[in-house]
Amino acid sequence: MSVDLRDIGVTLAGRSVLQGVSAHLAEGRVGIVGRNGSGKTTLARVIAGLIAPDSGTARIGGIDMARNRRAALASVGLIFQNPDHQIIFPTVLEEIAFGLTQQGRRPGEAEAAAQAMLDRFSKGHWAGAATHSLSQGQKQLLCLMAVLAMRPGVVVMDEPFSGLDIPTRMQLMRYLGGIAAQVVMVTHDPGQLRGFDRILWLDQGQLVADGPPGEVLPRFEAQMLDWGRLDDLADLTD
Ligand SMILES: Nc1ncnc2c1ncn2[C@@H]1O[C@H](COP(=O)(O)OP(=O)(O)OP(=O)(O)O)[C@@H](O)[C@H]1O
């Protein structure tokens, strides 16, 4: 799988949020970093097909999102920053099985695959649990399991680990390390990008660096620490 972004521009509510973002992403693990409001979530949504760019083209696996949206969407899964925006079913098993039936699997088969995904994370006992009764972190894990169960070619994740405890995070990172899908992950934590192949650094809607983690992350961290040392918070707002 690959994600091809050419000269992407996005304007939201009259404000330019992304400008001239171009990158051909063929690497297995791609991280997106940048300050609050730099456009990371917007870019993740463009890649996942939730936002059509105002200019430029986005292709997934060679398919132009604007021309064949259905085919492009079939190969990409998005894990939202806020799980409450993603969960729609009353029970955990239904939530995971739904996507699988949408892919054409029979209900019994979908439920068996959903149960297998739960077991994979030692959460088999969650099957009948009410989704609204889960904690935020548990909901986040549920969303991850639901998307991963569909085996998308590209998984786009927006701060997927923020609510997870350390053992669950480690378990999930190990799992992600082993899946065949291309992973595109937005995070504020460079520590989560160990082992990644490529990092995109966004600032004020533009790509300011694009390269291997060893090159991009030390510069990013140094810049963030420099800005963090400023006492005047007004200097930090855009
Ligand atoms: N629906 C919207 N309408 C108007 N402006 C928006 C909308 N969504 C995002 N923006 C603006 O676009 C800019 C980029 O937002 P985005 O959520 O992509 O940033 P981000 O890098 O993901 O931030 P964070 O790290 O805080 O999650 C921000 O200035 C934000 O206010």
From TrEMBL:
Q: Which SUPFAM superfamilies match?
A: P-loop containing nucleoside triphosphate hydrolases
Q: Which SMART domains match?
A: AAA
Output one GO MF annotation. Answer: ATP hydrolysis activity
Coiled-coil blocks: none
Identify the residues that the record assigns to the ABC transporter domain, covering every copy: 3-229
Q: Which top-level enzyme class is recorded in the Swiss-Prot or TrEMBL entry?
A: hydrolase
- InterPro entries per record: AAA+_ATPase (IPR003593), ABC_transporter-like_ATP-bd (IPR003439), ABC_transpr_CbiO/EcfA_su (IPR015856), ECF_ABC_transporter_ATP-bd (IPR050095), P-loop_NTPase (IPR027417)
**Taxonomy, superkingdom:** Bacteria
Per its UniProt record, what Pfam families does this chain match?
ABC_tran
GO cellular component labels:
ATP-binding cassette (ABC) transporter complex
Ordered alphabetically, the record's keywords are: ATP-binding, Hydrolase, Nucleotide-binding, Transport
Enzyme Commission code(s) on record: 3.6.3.-
Family label: Belongs to the ABC transporter superfamily.
Name this polypeptide is given: Biotin transport ATP-binding protein BioM
Q: What is the lineage of its organism?
A: Bacteria, Pseudomonadati, Pseudomonadota, Alphaproteobacteria, Rhodobacterales
